[in-house]
Description:
heterodimer; A: mainly alpha; ABC transporter involved in vitamin B12 uptake, BtuC; two-stranded antiparallel ribbon; two-stranded antiparallel sheet; 14 helices; globular; B: ABC transporter involved in vitamin B12 uptake, BtuC
Amino acid sequence: MKNWFKNIDSNLIRLLIITMIVFIIMAALVPSKFLTLRNIESMSFQFPELGLLSIAIMITMLTGGIDLSVVGIANLSGIFMALIFTKVIPEGTSGFPMFLYLIMGIIVGVSTGAFAGYLNGLLIAKVGITPILATLGTMQLFTGIAVVITKGFAISGFPEAFLIIGNSKILFVSFPLFIFILTTAGISVLLSKTSLGINLYLIGTNEKAAVFSGIRKARVLIKSYMLSGILGGITGVIMIARTNSAKADYGSSYVLQAILVSVLGGVNPAGGFGKVIGVVIAVLALQFLSSGFSMLRFSNFAKEFIWGAFLLFIMVLNFIQNRKAAKNIVKKEDLK
Amino acid sequence: MKISASKNMLKRFRHEFIILAIIVVLSITIGSINSQFYSVGNIYSLLKSTVIMGLFALGSFLVLVSGDIDISFTAIGVFCMYVTSKLVLLVMPGAGIVLIMLIAGLMGVLLGFINAVFISLLKMPGLIVTLGTGSMIRGFLLTFIGVRIINKLPDSMIAFSKITLLHKAQENGHIVGLSIGFVVFIAFAILIYLALKYTVTGRAVYALGGDRVATARVGFNITKVQFFIYGTVGFLSGLAGVTHSSFMRNGNPFDLVGTELSVIAAVVLGGTSITGGKGTVFGAVLGVFLLVLINNSLIMVGIPSYWQRAVVGIIILLSTGSVALQERRSRGV
């Protein structure tokens, strides 16, 4: 057991070093563009969305589940907020009333996420549907509801004050990055310091033992999917504030990307292992690769290729190292 | 404990029966709203719609039974389709469809073997490997081979889409036939069923999903079994790719990728356990039928197109939910 955690940590350190190497290589290749304040800033506006979605998926992976609906949740939350901003707020509102309306919109968005996650949790924990099927179904359902509301069109034109969330900076730190840091710190504490977090890891490590030791599995599972939904809702806030529009099927390729980021960050899709910091490093690594190769004028498709290669490279490295480590401790029977 | 044979059957195929019942109930409902549903033309077109997802699902089924997961098969399919079409157009535009399918299939086998190398020799989880290889294969295709839609496919591919069997005249005088693609799909389903039931490697696929360590101790060559699995997935994907472009009458390198999760959902819906060791070909085929029925028949019931996704979601949840509840009850939980 201890050995496993040790492995996870050394994997994280390796990922961190490789991420730094990627950063240095990119900086060396295109120093005039990559190392500019402008690039750092623009990166800090880009990755928080994918980062939050990846952490949402990570939380569900800790129990051996998955949440394919998280992008659907983000879009649905975005659309409910967009409705409030465009239909509810009377024209000419400003100052404090405007502030209250914005808060109301954000609360509606995030609670949409929580409710959607609650529904996922119910379907998985109470009805007993496999997570991949349940969330594939709700992904269709949430996106479907969003399509019904918008008839497929984008809603745009939000109050200036709201757009601040997606487009402004607080002391050199972009607002989305600020939200990202706060949220990940919160989730990190939640996972490592609270009983909910520890129960999540236990269910993913050994479900039966966890149940027999008195953990109320259904409740923990429901909470984990709610948490994932809330993160989806927060992502929705950032998404519509950054693009000034809400659309039913925005960012559908985010789902697989977020899974890629989580496994790259050392999350075990079968449950039990994974840390927030790993996912954060992984999303940074992909952002550096992605920005760097953009500056080298690579197409998006080439980036897809490079992301895949990067994932395999890191994973092969981890597996070889871990096997070496395992062999040193116990001479295991070779299963060939 | 003696249970009568029929009861035993019912128990063994409980899941399949539930799915079948759902298909029947849905069909009756749709048919009672729009009698056009029962027309030969519609049934033939529904069956044709199952072919691509079905071929992919057979491969996915094998992987899931062996206790792993593969999401690169759509990328393999589109890669084989596009590269084969280009190659054939360049070198021998007159090639027959069987040869074209063989080329695409073998290309798929090679790509599947790449997955097998990582999964089997390096013992890495399939999801991680195929996330990587899938995006590499598609990225490679779109970066180095082409992004342009091939509008003029080899003649034999176009001809293939027009081959039909069991011709029937419809009320309006049109003669409709069942696409040969469906026959290909069912033939491969039977082939895989037989391979799983009667060959040692086939039995080993189930064993591997049940208990990997025990499978190795009994003396199965796991490496061989996994190369068989991922090679077959590749072959079927190549076939699905070519059939897809033949049906669409063009070769679009942006097609197919993005459907992999629905394919896996169809297989799991059909009763294949996502943790391995359990599942039947029949169930997987039924799962595909159910999803295709849901996806393609809403228009017949008069549901406006922008309602489709929501209704598809609800029906998926209702079907999977009723199966899950049934199984809970049967286990007495």
